[in-house]
Every structure is written in C-alpha cells, then in structure tokens.
C-alpha cells in the first residue's frame, strides 16, 4: 500500500524535518531519502513505535533516526530527525510537535465544520 509522507510545518511555515535534513552530508542525506522512500512504499519494519511516535532507525554512521507519526492508515507525518547520541531530546521534541499537530488539526477540522454550517 502506498503511503503519503508529509513534513510537519510549524505555524511559521518552516519544517523541522527539512531543517535537520539540510544539515546532513551527502551520504547521510542519501540514506535518509532511501528511508523516506521505504516509508512511502509502506515499509515500516525499521520503525519502533512508542507513545504515538515512530522512530525510524537507520543503522549507519552515528545511528540516524527519523521521527514520525501516523495519521490514519495512509499518511505519515515527519517531525524531524537526529542521531543516537541526541535520541531522548529528539524524541521529546517529536512528542511536543505531535501534540501540536493534533491540536492544530482538531482546530482546523472544527473551523471547517463551522464554515460548512454557515453556507
């Protein structure tokens, strides 16, 4: 099953995932692109799930990680990445962003219902 993979955007329009990705060297970026393609193809075998957050482990170099969450069966949201050494800080950040994502999505859904009701 093909899965849509999107980057989470902060309210200012910036992407924590893209900021992290832009800091990678060419070899690491290639490994991360491959991991993202695997996610799009539905391969989540390298993802460890806990507290609603997924940690895609790339067993290469300093132990790169991609932090994500599922929104339904066909959508994965990317929150950022890091390396093994900063794992707990990165997990905590992904959890905060996941909560923010859910709050903003709920508010948007409520606003859409109100807008439809006024028509």
Properties at a glance:
single chain, 119 residues, alpha+beta, YaeB-like fold, 5-stranded mixed β-sheet, 3 helices, 45% helix
Helices and strands, with pairings:
Blueprint: E1 4-7, H1 16-22, H2 26-40, E2 47-50, E3 53-58, E4 64-70, E5 75-83, H3 87-117
Parallel strand pairs: 1-5
Antiparallel strand pairs: 2-3, 3-4, 4-5
What Rg do the Cα atoms give?
Answer: 15 Å
The beta-strand count equals 5
Please, how many helices? 3
Spatial strand arrangement across the major sheet = 1-5-4-3-2
What is the end-to-end distance? 37 Å
Structural class: alpha+beta
User: Share of helix among residues?
Assistant: 40-55%
Shape: globular
Strand residues, percent: 25-35%
Largest sheet: 5 strands, mixed
CATH class: Alpha Beta
Uncertain segments are none
| Arithmetic mean pLDDT | 94
Q: What is the level-2 CATH architecture name?
A: 2-Layer Sandwich
Q: Would you tell me which CATH topology applies?
A: YaeB-like fold
Order of helices and strands: EHHEEEEH
* CATH H-level superfamily title: RelE-like
Oligomer classification: single chain
Structure report:
- 45% of the residues lie in helices and 25% in strands.
- It is an alpha+beta fold.
- It has one domain: RelE-like (YaeB-like fold, 2-Layer Sandwich).
- The chain has a five-stranded mixed beta sheet, with helices on both faces.
- The termini are far apart.
Give a concise summary.
With 119 residues, the chain is α+β, with helices and mostly antiparallel strands. The protein has a single domain, classed as RelE-like (YaeB-like fold, 2-Layer Sandwich), CATH 3.30.2310.
């Amino acid at each position: 099953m093909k899965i849509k993979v999107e980057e989470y955007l902060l309210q200012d329009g910036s992407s924590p995932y893209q900021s992290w990705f832009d800091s990678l060297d060419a070899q690491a970026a290639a490994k991360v692109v491959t991991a993202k393609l695997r996610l799009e193809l539905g391969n989540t075998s390298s993802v460890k799930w806990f507290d609603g957050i997924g940690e895609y482990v790339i067993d290469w170099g300093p132990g790169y990680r991609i932090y994500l969450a599922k929104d339904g069966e066909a959508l994965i949201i990317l929150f950022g990445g890091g390396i093994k050494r900063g794992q707990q800080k990165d997990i905590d950040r992904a959890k905060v962003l996941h909560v923010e994502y859910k709050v903003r999505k709920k508010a948007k859904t409520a606003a859409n219902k109100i807008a439809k009701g006024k028509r």
